[in-house]
Amino acid sequence: MVSSAKPTVLVLDDDLGVRRTMRRFLETYGYGAAEAATYEEAIAHLQDTPGIFAVILDIRLGGAHTGLDVLEPLRTRPGCAEIPVLIMTGGVVNEEEEAMIARHRAHLFYKPEGFDTLLDFLDQLTGRDRLA
Predict the structure, then answer these.
(1) Over the stretch 2-19, which tens digit does the pLDDT of each residue have?
(2) Which domain holds residue 104?
(3) φ and ψ at 109, to 5 degrees?
(4) Residue 70 lies inside a defined structural domain of this protein
(5) Residues 22 and 115: beta-carbon distance below 8 Å
(6) Which residues, including other chains, have CB under 8 Å from residue 91's CB and lie 6 or more apart?
């Protein structure tokens, strides 16, 4: 269940351990979290979860879709055009993927950078001050 009192971040990653760790980390620092393991689950959350504050997408997913496939429906959905999107990957990003990330005003992070870096950047993008 997603708490409406906290800004909700949608986390798309096919690795259950990464999703759960990200949820705990976000909740520790005052965010709510919605988890999705697949493209389809992420799209359902975008349709059914009010007030998604930001989105964290893993590029590589098991299946026919990638996390980048979420960008187009996200950006064309009413009220979602300006939602901060942080892309996480543990792999190499090709030129086409880099262009798509830039075109949709998303921000690229590599998983070894750590959750602190990701969270600090999310706070900056959203103007949120966890310490206030």
Answers:
(1) 444 688 999 999 999 989
(2) 8-126
(3) -130, 145
(4) yes
(5) yes
(6) 59, 60
